[in-house]
Each structure stands twice: as structure tokens, then as C-alpha cells.
Amino acid sequence: xxxxxxxxxxxxxxxxxxxxxxxxxxxxxxxxxxxxxxxxxxxxxxxxxxxxxxxxxxxxxxxxxxxxxxxxxxxxxxxxxxxxxxxxxxxxxxxxxxxxxxxxxxxxxxxxxxxxxxxxxxxxxxxxxxxxxxxxxxxxxxxxxxxxxxxxxxxxxxxxxxxxxxxxxxxxxxxxxxxxxxxxxxxxxxxxxxxxxxxxxxxxxxxxxxxxxxxxxxx
Length: 219
Hints:
This protein has a 5-stranded parallel β-sheet, sandwiched between helices. The model has no long low-confidence stretch (mean pLDDT about 90). The chain has a single domain, classed as Rossmann fold (3-Layer(aba) Sandwich). The protein is α/β, with parallel strands linked by helices. The protein has 9 helices and 5 strands, in the order H-E-H-E-H-H-E-H-E-H-H-E-H-H.
């Protein structure tokens, strides 16, 4: 970083923005193999929070690669930079008072730790969405595992690039056995336990869950 760059102070603080939105900003970070169900559950969570009148934003790994990270490949260094940028965006959104939902494979301990360190004084919830490789390959919603097995894609997590599962995630989900709705309910319960959900409901929890029946259709 150049010595000529200084931090410009803002008069409106993160707490001011959170108070305006009547919520507690946080980052909910989903990690897991492609096809494990990250995006499916993240999308359900966003719908739930939206219907509860929370201000939230969903960051999805594939979507960011269409814009902000379109210049990055899938080498180890590019993957680290991909997650570094995603973490910085999540930080900016959290500072604006939002509840941020992030769904990225983020396969390496080191890159996830870099993101966590951005939020040492904030609420950061790491969710490991676990599914066996065989189940992920059976789902293969984007046809990526088939291409990886055929050698059309290299450095693909789970095939020729490792995935390092979190050692102590805040939430562990096993989508081999748990439905998307069951996973969502676990997340909601933990967010409640951590005091991150305030009473903004217009519908009961059961009414909202009933409106969001789904199956694992993407990563």
C-alpha cells in the first residue's frame, strides 16, 4: 500500500446505519464443496430474512465471477484473491448495516482465516455445508464434476484440488441427511441464540418456512 494513502473518516458510523435498519449487522459465511447445497440454503436464508423485514445481501461465488472477479482464474493464488475480494465486499456491506450472506467454496483454511480476521470485532458466522463427494457428484447441478473427471476442468475442488473442512465451524450442516428446510431451521435457531435476530416478524416462523419448500438444486 502506498504511503500516500490515508483512511478517510466518516461521520455516519456502522452503528448509525445498523440503528437506522433496526438490526445487528453480521456476515454468515457458507463454505463447502460444489453441489453441497451452499447456494440453495443461502438463498433460503435470504428469503427468510427478507420476509422478516431484515436488510440483507447475498454474495454468491459464481455471481461475483461474472463481474468483480471475472479477471480471476482457478489457480491457488487466484482462488485466494477471489476470497480476499469477497471478504472485503462483505466487510463493506456489513459496515453499511446489512446482514451479509456469502456462499463460496473457499476451500483453504488460510483464506477463510483471512476473511474471519476482517471481522474480529463483528459478528461472523461460519457455516460448513458438508456433503460427501459422491452425493455432490450425483447432484452435479452445473455439470462441473463430469467435466473435471474428463479433464476439461483442472484444479477442481474435490477432484484434483483439496478441500480443507473447517475445524470448528459455528454451524455444521450435513446435507446428505438434512433437507434444506431442516438446515435453515438450524441456522435460524443459532442466529436467535446469538441474539442476531430481533423481533421484526410479520409472519410466524412456521408460515415463512412453509412458503419456502425446496430441494438442493445448486452449489
